[in-house]
Amino acid sequence: MKILFVGDVFGETGRKALGIQIEKIRNLEKPDFIIVNGENAAGGKGITYNTAQEIFSCGVDAITMGNHTWARKEVMNIIDSGMNIIRPANYPRGVPGKGRIILEKDGVKLGLINLIGRVYMENNVDCPFQAADREVQNLRGQVDAILVDFHAEATSEKIAMGYYLDGRAEVVVGTHTHVQTADEQILENGTAYITDVGFTGPADGVIGVNREQIIRKFTSGLPSQFEPASGRAIFNAVMVTIDPVMKKAVNIRRIADYIKL
Ligand SMILES: [Fe+2]
Ligand SMILES: [Fe+2]
What we know:
Elements lengths: L1 E5 L4 H19 L3 E5 L11 H8 L5 E3 L10 H4 L6 E2 L13 E6 L2 E9 L11 H12 L5 E7 L3 H10 L6 E5 L9 E2 L5 E3 L6 E2 L8 H10 L12 E11 L4 E12 L2
Parallel strand pairs: 1-2, 2-3, 3-4, 6-7, 7-8, 8-10
Antiparallel strand pairs: 1-12, 5-6, 9-10, 11-12, 12-13
This protein binds fe (ii) ion (FE2) (2 copies).
């Protein structure tokens, strides 16, 4: 089983780059499942019906979210609509949406879980490790493989989650920092892991945002408007190969392509 996981798709630039690269990768490698983090899909923050549709029209099977889940009020129209969009599973009980989903294609089932970290992030969420236990337990026996998108800031929290789920989830990928890390590996018990997949969006800004606006904010401390940067795009993803009989990942490869749109 081959899974393509694409890091945070950011604004129009990210959506365009996603379409171009997915078409290329589908022709060359034919992944069984394509998963995309879409928390920055709409103008850099949040997701709407139209931006979700645009992502799905590229051949994406499911969208995960993160700290910008609720940034657009329109998300409330789609989060419980039956679209394959999940939000962090460790959000407080009772909030809209769901934190896990089962995808099925040609008789193969992939369980997908979204979690959010607590270190240097929102602290009004439940423990991501306890939520991981609960969600993995729920999916086990029902699916051929499990992929966890752990949307978190601290590398330590993400690495800890990788080891915590080693052998219990076939894939644990980090998202949120927008910068790809070079530590992709298969952990001892067969989990494919990377601390951060990176993002898909404007390459020449500050993690997607217009660089002058961010520099002005750092140098003046004044509140400022953030707009997506212009220029080249970067496409950041990982391709994971899983042996469904052994229930282990056998390969994880980083993808980081610059694209002129
Ligand atoms: Fe993001
Ligand atoms: Fe984020």
